[in-house]
UniProtKB/TrEMBL annotation:
<feature type="transmembrane region" description="Helical">
    <location>
        <begin position="104"/>
        <end position="124"/>
    </location>
</feature>
<feature type="domain" description="TMEM205-like">
    <location>
        <begin position="43"/>
        <end position="160"/>
    </location>
</feature>
<dbReference type="Pfam" id="PF13664">
    <property type="entry name" value="DUF4149"/>
</dbReference>
<protein>
    <recommendedName>
        <fullName>TMEM205-like domain-containing protein</fullName>
    </recommendedName>
</protein>
<feature type="transmembrane region" description="Helical">
    <location>
        <begin position="42"/>
        <end position="63"/>
    </location>
</feature>
<keyword id="KW-0812">Transmembrane</keyword>
<feature type="transmembrane region" description="Helical">
    <location>
        <begin position="12"/>
        <end position="30"/>
    </location>
</feature>
<keyword id="KW-1133">Transmembrane helix</keyword>
<feature type="transmembrane region" description="Helical">
    <location>
        <begin position="130"/>
        <end position="149"/>
    </location>
</feature>
<dbReference type="GO" id="GO:0016020">
    <property type="term" value="C:membrane"/>
</dbReference>
<keyword id="KW-0472">Membrane</keyword>
<dbReference type="InterPro" id="IPR025423">
    <property type="entry name" value="TMEM205-like"/>
</dbReference>
<feature type="transmembrane region" description="Helical">
    <location>
        <begin position="188"/>
        <end position="209"/>
    </location>
</feature>
Amino acid sequence: MGCTISNLRCVTNIAGLSSLIISLFPKLIIKNPQILRPLLNVSWGYLFGSTFWLCFFSEIGVLRGFKDMKSLPLPDNAEDAKRLLEEHKKLESDFNRRSIDFQYFFSLSTLFSGILLLSTVRLATHNIQLRISSSVVAISCLLNSLYFYNKIYKLKQKKENLYNELIENPQNDTTIAALKKNKKEFHIYHGLSILSLYLSFFGLTPYIFT
């Protein structure tokens, strides 16, 4: 499973980056409306539907995310670190499940956003609004797939390692400082990831009125 996801992410990230480069040269894209229009409709439909669900109805969405949102306190001593580490272990299976779901989502979104971008550039060469919107969607998807997801996952792993360090050496002030920094960075990158997701969603809305 891990190898499959890794290969999928690699292929879709390359496809996404390639689409951004090719979009700068519209004449390189085949001009066949019979092929491009269905591709545009399918890619937009997938992106809008999946992003709409993720933004509003998923575990990180507006309707559920704020209601269920809670921030775990930083541990002050080894006992707190043990307790918080146990809580993290209990949620490990749920975290892994969501991690796989997000990897699939970001990979497919990157692929379809690239298709949307190329189709838009060729079919609506002079429509600057749609070209900008499709570029925003493609870049947002790439940012999440290439950078934000990896950063958040590494910060989560680092936090568990810091908990173990605090358990082994409760008097280490450096570890507590590192935990504070880790928590701050996690919130920053998690927020940027969600912001990127919403930018992607709102970048799709101009197509509704065109």
